[in-house]
Design the sequence.
């Protein structure tokens, strides 16, 4: 029984560490880019930078109508303040609570994005995203969550 408990603890620790690494990989580039540009450019608009980065990451994969582009620009711009503060807290503290908060936010943001897509667009997006290699198409990989990770994050949040 002790061996089973020890194995469970070991696998839980590995899974927790992998999701920490995934969260760090997923949010660090965006967070760092915003921090760097805030310092370099006095009139830098971080919400617009965030929104444009997300749109750039997806535009080569899915074709959007003008209405959808406007919806996405507003959605991503509105998501930015909460994303920035949550990511900042996560990087500064690395607590279990800040990890849960960033995971919840990433799941919510992904679901909000997917709600804008048509069924056909969603199928194209999921098919492309799930077919990426580990090092494939970085802008999309950094800004959006593939189906497997989304399911994993949701499971960890239960």
Sequence:
């Amino acid at each position: 029984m002790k061996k089973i408990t020890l194995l469970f603890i070991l696998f839980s620790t590995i899974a927790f560490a992998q999701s920490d690494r995934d969260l760090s990989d997923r949010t660090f580039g965006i967070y760092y880019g915003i921090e760097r540009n805030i310092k370099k450019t006095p009139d830098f608009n971080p919400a617009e930078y965030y929104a444009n980065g997300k749109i750039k990451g997806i535009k080569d994969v899915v074709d959007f109508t003008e209405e959808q582009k406007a919806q996405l620009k507003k959605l991503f711009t509105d998501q930015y303040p909460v994303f920035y503060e949550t990511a900042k807290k996560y990087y500064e503290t690395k607590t279990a609570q800040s990890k849960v908060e960033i995971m919840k936010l990433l799941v919510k943001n992904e679901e909000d994005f997917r709600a804008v897509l048509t069924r056909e667009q969603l199928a194209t997006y999921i098919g492309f995203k799930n077919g990426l290699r580990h090092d494939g198409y970085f802008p999309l990989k950094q800004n959006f969550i593939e189906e497997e990770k989304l399911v994993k994050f949701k499971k960890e949040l239960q």
Summary: The CA atoms of residues 51 and 76 lie 5 Å apart. Confidence is low (pLDDT under 50) at residues 1-18. The chain is about 80% helix and 0% strand.
